């Protein structure tokens, strides 16, 4: 009887784990729950010559489709940055869309990376892709990662082999007013 109960327990455990979605799908669905909402953030890594210092930081999960999520990242009055997440071949890709105030693309734009695996529901990691290495050779060792939980969203950058580290954390428990559309969107 004990062996039978153990077998039933193991079979039920396998069925439950087989029904679980991969980490990237859970991450994607949890992020999409914030579509249309804006949140204020703080720079966790301020430095002496920090261009973010003293400026209001806001992210706005503005546009969510089946395979894309657009998140403008506002730094004070600067609306030049948008994080573009896309689902490609069942993996998440992160690109940085940089625009001028007139909407034209910056000469350094569309850099980023694609997750090397499905990751976890609370974190996705994006090593620099070849397009980034070609566009910005010194950024070929960049690794970006985004964490997401019930209360916060963090965007992080580490340049492997250097002291370069940037992290900004947004409070998902308090919505704020969006500064409007990002430049070019």
Automatic annotation (TrEMBL):
Domain of life: Bacteria
Upper classification of the organism: Bacteria, Pseudomonadati, Bacteroidota, Cytophagia, Cytophagales
Protein name: Secreted protein
Signal peptide positions on this chain: 1-18
Source organism of the structure: Shivajiella indica
Keyword list, A-Z: Signal
